[in-house]
Amino acid sequence: MGSLKSEGGLERRLGLRAALATNLIGMVGVGPFLTIPAMLTAMGGPHIIYAWIAGALLSLADGLVYAQLAAALPGTGGPYVYLREAYAPLGLGRLMAFLFIFQVLLSAPLSIASGAVGFANYLGFYWETMTPIAHGLVAAATCVAMTALLYRNIESVGRLAVAMLVVVLATVGWIVAAGLFTFSPAQAFDFPASAFRVDGAWWRSLSAATLIAIYNYGGYNNVCNIGGEVRDPSKTLPRAIVLSIVAVAVMYVLMSTVILGMVPWREAERSETIAALFIARTFHDPAAGHAAGALMTALILFVTAASLYALILGYSRVPFAAARDGQFFAVFGRLHPTKSFPHVSLLTIGAISLPFCFLSIGRIVNWLILVQIVTQFVWICAGVILLHRYRRDIAQPFVMWLYPIPAIVAAVTWTAIFVTGPRDGIVFSLAFVGITLVAYKVFSSR
Description:
Elements: H1 16-27, H2 31-43, H3 49-72, H4 79-86, H5 93-123, H6 132-149, H7 154-180, H8 185-188, H9 200-217, H10 233-260, H11 265-268, H12 274-281, H13 286-324, H14 343-356, H15 361-390, H16 405-419, H17 423-444
Helix pairs in contact: 1-7, 1-10, 1-13, 2-9, 3-9, 3-10, 3-15, 3-16, 4-5, 4-15, 5-6, 5-13, 5-14, 5-15, 5-17, 6-13, 6-14, 7-10, 7-13, 12-13, 13-14, 15-16, 15-17
């Protein structure tokens, strides 16, 4: 059978299984194993299930926005294409597309670096004397290795994504299965009185914990970036997005519940290797427990590497699509001469990630989410409404359920999270927007 071609010369070879696998391994990374303690601190107790549910609902509402846009505009580039087409009737298409492309130069490396830093953190289970410099070098080396794995044609990438997903699900499955037979429901749901007192402090705690939860859910729109390489995109993309969010939400709720049913929440919030600690507690023999913890750490390291693999894959397609459209530097639009993948864009995104590997994960998460909210998330939510209303020339085979309520809910929630975020992160994000506008003016005058 001949190859199915999309615009730009890319081949449509990814089916639902590979698209779903690409999304899932981009979502299920080291995040929960690092951030469950931080979520416990933010909520002031084991009721982090509130944040998981709130994060899942926001992700689903936002995911439906991306699903509708991805079905209507299934080309490679994802949000870049959506913003360009949605805001074109207002004469802002070029500006909004540039805003997204420019923020990718920061958010993509930050997102990739966050996973790499998490990888180095868990490697500390084996390398207890790791220095800060060595920690940064390990994270950077991880980015290099994942970029090298992606230096191949898209069909091979799809097969490798499915293989990686098997290990990802095995890791989470081990945690859930081990806990279901031994965890204490009374301990897991030992909620303090403040968990049921809905006041200003409760909402602030939920907002802070949900911000962290959203970081863990991040990646549900990753498959949109490779829409030009997906078969039957009007059906495959919405299904991959919704199914991945639901699957990951169930995983996270079950995983955190069984962990807190084995490890008291006050002890868990002080742990840096919560998954290894949990698995060790499922064994009566300390030696066997330590060995199991070491094996769990190895699996977490693999899960993290798989997540980085998916992130770099998706982000590398964004500058490529923009360059092919004449909205970014032409060199990023080059395809590998024999394997038909955007090698210049891939190598550049991987390289820019390296210096961010030397930052703390707390600062990375703070900058990443707040920058994305103000430069992408709220504008995408408005964009789906603009596209539906003004772009009758574009077929829209999938319309979100209860349109446009999910888009409005997502936009309002993103705004609330931003204005209640850390002050330094807000200032940094707004300053970045200012720099972007200056850069756009320079670019437009060329």
